[in-house]
Amino acid sequence: MSLTARQVWAYRDTVNVYRLSVTKTSGVINQPTYSATPVLTALTCRIESTQFRNTDTPPLGRTQDDNFFTEDELHCELGTDIKDTDVVKITTTGSPLLNKYFKVVGFGQTRQSFGNRTPNYTHIRLRLLDVAPPGL
Asked: How far apart are CA 28 and CA 7, in angstroms?
């Protein structure tokens, strides 16, 4: 699907998407790594970063894992092929998130057009990675 006029105005970010690749050597499965060649290059999208990074030691019995409220969001064109465990690298010039890697959490939710609304986008949740994944 093509972007609506509002999406063309709002989607200012670009990302590259990388996918896990599994190889076999003599019938033995090697450790999965990410392919250095992106599946999607310069994908136009909008990133909503929560900018919340809790680095404090959690109280006893509490986890420090990301949740629904602390994960970042990616909005891209409806029908974009982004899957769970893909890695997204921010390539937007001038962005504070430039060259940061995010891991896709779950599968994207589609917001299709109905009635007078025409959202037509895929909503994807992201988690910031501390280091680049293997292979990138």
From this structure: 46
Structure-derived torsion over alpha carbons of residues 77, 83, 87, 92, reported in degrees to the nearest 10: 0
Question: What's the pTM value of the predicted model, to 2 decimals?
Answer: 0.79
Tens-digit pLDDT profile for residues 26-41: 777 777 888 889 999 9
- List Cα–Cα distances, 72 to 35, 125, 135, in angstroms: 23, 6, 23
Alpha-carbon distances of 100 from 47, 80, 111, rounded to whole Å:
12, 21, 26
Tens-digit pLDDT profile for residues 48-104: 876 655 555 555 565 556 666 667 888 888 888 899 989 999 999 988 889 999 999
Q: Which residues contact 22 (CB under 8 A, 6 or more apart)?
A: 29, 30, 32
Q: How far apart are CA 71 and CA 123, in angstroms?
A: 12
Q: Which amino acid is at 48?
A: E
CA dist., res. 125 & res. 104, Å (int): 6
- Distance, in Å, from the CA atom of 31 to the CA atom of 38, rounded to the nearest integer, reads 19
